[in-house]
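User: Assemble these into one structure.

Assistant: Restating your components, then the assembled model:
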Amino acid sequence: MLTAFGDSRSGNCLKVKWMLDITRRDYQWIETDVTTGSSRTPEFLAKNPAGQVPLLILDDGRPLAQSNAIILWIGEGGRFVPTDAYDRARMMEWLFWEQYSHEPYVAVVRFQRTLGGKSEHEIEPRLMERGHAALARMEMVLSGADWLVGTAPTLADLALVAYTRVAHEGGFAMNRYPAIQAWILRVEAAFAIG
Amino acid sequence: MLTAFGDSRSGNCLKVKWMLDITRRDYQWIETDVTTGSSRTPEFLAKNPAGQVPLLILDDGRPLAQSNAIILWIGEGGRFVPTDAYDRARMMEWLFWEQYSHEPYVAVVRFQRTLGGKSEHEIEPRLMERGHAALARMEMVLSGADWLVGTAPTLADLALVAYTRVAHEGGFAMNRYPAIQAWILRVEAAFAIG
């Protein structure tokens, strides 16, 4: 059986849970509160020296970290990973873009507002600007396409929806992005996200 | 023929050049100065709306962005991408970690010092701390292994070496990391990096 360590309030962790659920894997979920240092204990650091969740422990005890690496491992060979080499490469492009240009702004601001207790005026304007730049890029793409890559849902949609669907909790006015809002509903339906 | 847009001072761009060279691809390199806005012109944004280099244009004109997605596309099926599913997943883990926990500190500080003209005391201490945390994690792993994944060089080594080999230009005292220094020489030899 697989074991997943994760904080259910984290989009990065939920990506893993959603993929485990939709591929009907047998797994146990170990809730790991990132705000109380549970991912920084000596026991946890022995499993993942980076001190981060999500962390997946395979049947044989080997660990795997990084949300997008984990969903790729779970999804490989399935319907959410394109077989076409270019579509596959574009999916990878979005996965790296998500972690570099989206998550550090959209997710971080939401974390500061919801768990960090910061008010709107305490958020660095640069973080809001870059978050909006990421959302604007998605809006542009999704104004002309149902999915981020090709003509069917892929892990790119799953990875990007994780924090985009809760971006309003960070104060991002999502009514600016009607194409994103319609896409969120499509992705939630495709991946059975409740 | 492939076309690669890149700034030769950028580790992210050099990753692509090194992979194109070692796999003996037929390509043209279009030097693109990121400090003068060359990746933000309307012509460039039409190719990559993210406004970033490296950017690879395939034979048929289709674009591919994100350094690690590009080296995966180039390397797929070759000797630097493991066929074992777990080794492959661990390679992906390092590629995502590089972009999230290493590049934003080690590369950004080096950029600020070399191209941004900042002096040592103008660098945010938090960036140096996180850069050293990333290097310390690599040192720990490389003290017990020749390569980041398994027993042979992979794209994980290539991606991580890009900014690690020039980390000293950002003011990181690399004599703290003897295992990294030995690994840099191994990776440079494996990928014929001059």
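The beta strands of chain A are 2-6, 27-31, 55-57, 63-65.
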